[in-house]
């Protein structure tokens, strides 16, 4: 049995960090997933004038201030990518590649994914469109599969699928050398739309069409509803109430992922509200 | 434990069943299926007598899984009167599955 944390925070931007310091102040055992850079958006900001108390500073200066703050409070960031979070009833199972973690409450602070889904992607999800090639590949034994890959890892998945499927097309969304099996056909073209009747039967690209039984879309980061299956969304954002509660009991969300405006101090404020309500949720369960 | 059924007895156990029947399509290599399994077990206990629960391993039972067009697993289907009345693709929290089943009992 693995250790069960009080709160797991997913994301290391202003929302996640603000949630982390407040959880720490309330003496809860929290784990925060993210990266050393904290937030790529923050590092890139040239000038910030709307963060109260900090005037005329760059994104990297504000990042440094955040970093000093969490270090002073002895908060460490776990540099691992969360693939999925399952609401098991009275706890959450957090899947990280080969490992998994457990927590009693969760705060989603993953920011906003800007790449839009392909037309038809959502409509045919589970009817030919999938996000986990290794999960569903055996269902496409002897069939034609197209993999739309946004990163190098997608190549390994395509190779795995090619051992089962009768034909695999690989559509790279980046430029690099591809480490693919010989049998895979690389199509350098832009996906436009996924078509079908009951199930997927075609992928329309800018310059051609491919007949295919399945389409796997493999991205760097997944949308919140794929990250936490069953999470209710509203216009592309996680649906929350004023306590930052989501549709799943014990699951809270904060920052850009909950909606506009996309601003640092709004994210930090929401992170605080989410953490404090996660603390009350934990206390009410005792 | 939830009963494992196969291509041969699918009709008898699910289609011809008089009660609302919940079918969990799964396979041993599927991570989300493993997570869903204890959730389904709990629901089977909570809804004992109100709905019937069965499991189908898609690896061993291609006929049933292709007849009902299972293209992604886990897939949970609710059958009533021999017809599919609800299809839930992918992992779902316990309450969401319970609500979907309760609509049909």
Please tell me about this protein's structure.
The complex is a heterodimer of chains A (286) and B (105). Chain A is α/β, with parallel strands linked by helices and 286 residues long. Chain A has two domains: 4-113 and 221-285, FAD/NAD(P)-binding domain; 129-218, FAD/NAD(P)-binding domain (3-Layer(bba) Sandwich). Chain A has helices spanning 14-25, 40-44, 59-72, 133-136, 153-162, 224-227, 264-285, and strands at residues 4-10, 30-33, 77-78, 84-87, 92-96, 99-108, 129-130, 144-149, 167-172, 185-186, 191-196, 200-205, 209-211, 214-218, 233-234, 237-238, 251-253. In chain A, the strands form four sheets. In chain A, strands 1, 2, 3, 4, 5, 6 and 17 form a seven-stranded mixed β-sheet that branches. A five-stranded parallel β-sheet of chain A has the order 7-14-8-9-10, with helices on one face. The radius of gyration of chain A is 21 Å and the shape is globular. Chain A starts with a strand and ends with a helix. Chain B is α/β, with parallel strands linked by helices. Chain B has a single domain, classed as 3-Layer(aba) Sandwich (Glutaredoxin). Helix content of chain B is 35%, strand content 27%. Chain B contains four helices and five strands, in the order βαβαβαββα. Chain B has a five-stranded mixed β-sheet. In chain B, strand 2, helix 2 (31-46) and strand 3 form a beta-alpha-beta unit. Chain B is globular and about 30 Å long. The mean pLDDT of chain B is 93. The A-B interface holds A 84, 86-89, 93, 95, 125-128, 130, 132, 135-136, 138-139, 198-199, 214, 229-230, 248-249 and B 27, 29-32, 35-36, 38-39, 42, 58-59, 65, 69-73, 75, 89-96.
């Amino acid at each position: 049995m693995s250790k069960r944390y009080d709160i797991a925070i997913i994301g290391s931007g202003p929302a996640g960090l603000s949630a982390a310091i407040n959880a720490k102040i309330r003496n809860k055992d929290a784990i925060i997933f993210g990266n050393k850079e904290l937030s790529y958006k923050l590092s890139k900001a040239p000038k910030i004038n709307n963060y109260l108390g900090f005037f005329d500073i760059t994104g990297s200066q504000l990042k440094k201030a955040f970093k000093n703050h969490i270090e002073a409070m002895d908060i460490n960031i776990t540099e691992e990518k969360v693939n999925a979070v399952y609401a098991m009833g009275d706890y959450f199972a957090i899947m990280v590649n080969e490992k998994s973690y457990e927590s009693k409450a969760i705060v989603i602070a993953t920011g906003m994914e800007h790449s839009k889904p392909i037309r038809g992607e959502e409509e045919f999800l589970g009817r030919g469109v999938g996000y986990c090639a290794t999960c569903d590949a055996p269902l496409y034994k002897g069939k034609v599969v197209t993999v739309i890959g946004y990163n190098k890892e997608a190549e390994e998945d395509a190779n795995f699928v090619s051992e089962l499927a009768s034909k695999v097309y690989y559509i790279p969304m980046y430029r690099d050398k591809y480490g693919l099996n010989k049998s895979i056909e690389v199509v350098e073209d832009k996906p436009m739309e996924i078509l079908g009747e009951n199930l997927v039967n075609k992928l329309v690209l800018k310059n051609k069409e491919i007949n295919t039984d399945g389409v796997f879309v493999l991205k760097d980061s997944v949308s919140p509803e794929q990250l936490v299956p069953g999470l209710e969304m509203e216009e592309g954002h996680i649906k929350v109430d004023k306590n930052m509660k989501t549709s799943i009991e014990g699951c809270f969300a904060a920052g850009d992922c909950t909606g506009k405006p996309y601003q640092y101090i709004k994210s930090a404020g929401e992170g605080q509200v989410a953490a404090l309500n996660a603390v009350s949720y934990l206390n009410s369960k005792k | 434990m939830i009963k494992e059924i196969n291509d041969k007895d699918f009709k008898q156990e699910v289609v011809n069943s008089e009660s609302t029947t919940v079918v969990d399509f799964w396979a041993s290599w599927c991570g989300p299926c493993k997570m869903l399994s204890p959730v389904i077990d709990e629901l089977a206990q909570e809804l004992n007598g109100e709905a019937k629960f069965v499991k189908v391993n898609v690896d061993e039972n291609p006929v049933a899984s292709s007849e009902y067009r299972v293209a992604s697993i886990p897939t949970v289907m609710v059958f009533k009167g021999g017809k599919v009345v609800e299809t839930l693709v992918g992992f779902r929290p316990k309450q969401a599955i319970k609500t979907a089943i309760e609509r049909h009992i």
